[in-house]
Amino acid sequence: MNFLLIYLIILIMIISNNFFLFNEEFLILIAFTSFCFIIYNKLTPLISLRLENKSFFIEKSFVTSLNLIHNILIDKKKNNLKFNNLKFIFISLKKYYSNFSIKFINEFLKYLKFIEKNNLIIKLNYFTVLEKNYKKFITSLLIEKLNKINNSFNFFNSKIKIKKFQTINAVNRLNLIKKI
C-alpha cells in the first residue's frame, strides 16, 4: 500500500509540472503500468499461495513415494533373507532325502535279495518241471509225425508205383546196408 501511495504522489507531481505531454501513447502507458501494478499487488499473494500449496503437495507426494519405496525395499530385503534361508532349507532337505533314499535302496535291495532267492528257487523248480513236460510233449509230437510220414511212404511205395518213392526206398535200403 505504501508503494501505491508513493506511485500516486509521483504521478501527480509529474502531471502538475507538465513534465510529460498527455497524448494517447502516454495515457496507454500509464493505464498499462497501473494495470500491471494492481495485478501484481492483488494476484501475488494468490499465486504465491497456490505455488506454495503445489510445492507442499509435490513435497508430500515425494515423501510418500520415498516411504513407499523404502517399505518395498524393506519387504524385498526380508524376502531375500527368507529366500537365502529357503536355499539352506532346500539344501538340508536334499541331503536328508539323498541319505534317506540311499538307506532305503540298500534295505530294499537286501529285502529283494532274500525274496528273490526264494522266488528264484520256486521259479527254477517250476521251469524244470515245465521243461520236462515240454520235452515229453515235443518228443511225442515228433514221434507221431515221423510215424505218419513213415506210414505214408510205406503206403505209396507198396500200393502206388511212383518212381520217386521207389528210388527213395532204394536209397533207404542202401543206407541200411551200409550201416550194417
Automatic annotation (TrEMBL):
Organism per entry: Vertebrata lanosa
UniProt GO molecular function: hydrolase activity
Keywords for the protein's UniProt record, in alphabetical order: Hydrolase, Membrane, Mitochondrion, Transmembrane, Transmembrane helix
Record's protein name: ATP synthase F0 subunit b
Main enzyme class: hydrolase
Gene designation per UniProt: atp4
Enzyme Commission number: 3.6.3.14
UniProt key word Mitochondrion: yes
Ranges annotated as spanning the membrane: 5-22, 28-51
